[in-house]
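Please predict the structure of the following assembly.
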Amino acid sequence: MKIVNEMKISFKSKSENEGFARTAVCAFAAFLDPGIEEIADLRTAVSEAVTNCIVHAYRGTEGIIEITARILNDNEIYIRIKDKGCGIPDVKRAMEPLYTTAPCEERAGLGFAVMESFMDKLTVKSTVGKGTVVTMRKKLGAINE
Amino acid sequence: MSVKIMNEDNKIIALLSGEIDHHNAKTLRQDIDFALRENQPEELILDFSEVGFMDSSGIGLVMGRYKLMQEIGGSLIVRNPPAHIKKVMRLSGIDRLASICNV
């Protein structure tokens, strides 16, 4: 898989950065000339991943969220969202739709379900006490091919 | 992000606009709940016509208001969600709880 283009951003886990993060990734993805629905899917998936870092990984603390986005040679976007937060003890359970550890804050427990459904591929690797890496891939601009 | 709240014949209409995410869902929740507590309406209409973006934080917002309206003994209507917001709503199953309408 050839990397055609790449960008990296890192920012503080402040909730006001959620909008910045999804907008930055979508601006980068615009190189692939995505359709309106594809860009909405991507925007939502990135928002979910970044929100997880802020709400869960860095709960009660502040840390750095790092996003790497790559454009691959077959019109595919690759996104890696990395935190050095608390980690997820049971990734399988965390990925179950409607499972949440923060119901009092009206978290719907749908973050991973949205990422999984709106992107083509999703992988989650986590180590308790060290952090979590979420990678997602999606082919874009399919309508224009 | 902002919400304009209107009170009409036992109905509260919340006209949402902008982007709904975790960052601004809290303020929206507070504004809407204040109006619900003050007026105890029979119906709450959440109007999404002017919402450009919503992630699952918005689902939490709708679910929470649905529960609140049930407690009050009223109903919730989700009005005019754009296509991509409807997609998030379908995934959550909220379309089976609240009625979604387009006007």
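Residues 90 and 96 of chain B are 8 Å apart (CA to CA). The helical segments of chain B are 22-39, 56-72, 83-92.
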